[in-house]
Amino acid sequence: MSTIEKALDKLGQANSTPTETASADLPVPTIARSITEPVDQKASNQFIDIDLESLSKRNFVAKATERKLIYEEYRVIKRKLINNAFGPLSSTLRNPNLILVSSSRPGEGKTFTSVNLALSIALEQDKTVLLVDADVLRPNVSRTLEISVPRGLTDYLSSDTVDVSDIMYSTNVERLKLIAAGKPHHLSTELLASDKMAALVNEFASRYPDRIVIFDAPPLLGVNETSVLAGMCGQAVIVLEENKTKLNELEKAISMLPPDLATGFVINKAHYSRDKGYGYGYGYYAE
């Protein structure tokens, strides 16, 4: 049994929800609606054109006409999150539409998961999604999306003249908006724990009833502000890398999360035997 399996078994003994895994190269039903819709770029200067072709080549949920199992995998994951955000459980959670995505250590795939979740949720007919790069120490969302914006989260939190509308960008994915991490700041970690950040998060939670907000947050270990941000959210997705994430680090990371947080796990780069060799997959486990 792998480290991840032991951790999930230990942490989820009382729950009957199974872990979902799948290969990344089997055919799946084609999603009928394209992820992109016509967008009037002149309607706002706050617009980003994301290169969906490049994302697709890097195994992101970017072109709905393609037959990739990753679309199905993230359908399963997002459905649990959406049900928690708007279903019966939502009344028991604080800010259930705010989802923190983190990991125990850097490099385990949290940004890959954040971006794919945002793109997948953007396919929903009646939901919108805001992706926020809250990893202000080591921002990776803009790098992953291959975009560049002049201002972001740290610029808003450290200034009295920058408005939320100045850092929020529409995209060529109709239901997806973005907030980048912003310029490096010597108090960037403290900014995440500030009252201004708390007020911003509360605004995100209440302003749009159909919106899910995904925070690509710093790893839990070594950055106390991530646990502070987790306390503002209703859900958390912890990304684990198969055969890399250590059980003791995972347990320590989870202990930093609020006990009433709806927490799930995504297994990244999971190897499993198949007739034609090995593949990669993703899993989800909900407590």
Please characterize this protein's 3D structure.
With 287 residues, this protein is of the alpha/beta class. It is built from 11 helices and 9 strands. The chain has a 9-stranded mixed sheet, with helices on both faces. Helix 11 links the parallel strand 7 and strand 8. Helix 3 crosses helix 4. The longest helix has 18 residues. The radius of gyration is 18 Å and the shape is globular.
Topology overview:
Layout: H1 3-11, E1 47-48, H2 52-57, H3 69-86, E2 98-103, H4 110-121, E3 128-133, H5 141-145, H6 153-157, H7 164-167, E4 168-171, E5 176-179, H8 188-192, H9 195-207, E6 211-216, H10 224-230, E7 235-241, H11 247-255, E8 262-274, E9 277-286
Parallel strand pairs: 1-4, 2-6, 2-7, 3-5, 3-6, 7-8
Antiparallel strand pairs: 4-5, 8-9
Helix pairs in contact: 3-4
H and E string: HEHHEHEHHHEEHHEHEHEE
Helix content: 25-40%
Please state how the strands of the largest beta sheet are arranged side by side: 1-4-5-3-6-2-7-8-9
Rounded radius of gyration (Å): 18 Å
Count of runs of 4 or more consecutive helical residues:
11
Measured distance between first and last alpha carbons = 20 Å
Low-confidence stretches: 13-43, 272-287
* Derived structural class: alpha/beta
Number of strands: 9
Mean pLDDT: 82
Write down the overall geometry: globular
Task: Report strand %.
Answer: 15-25%
Largest sheet: 9 strands, mixed
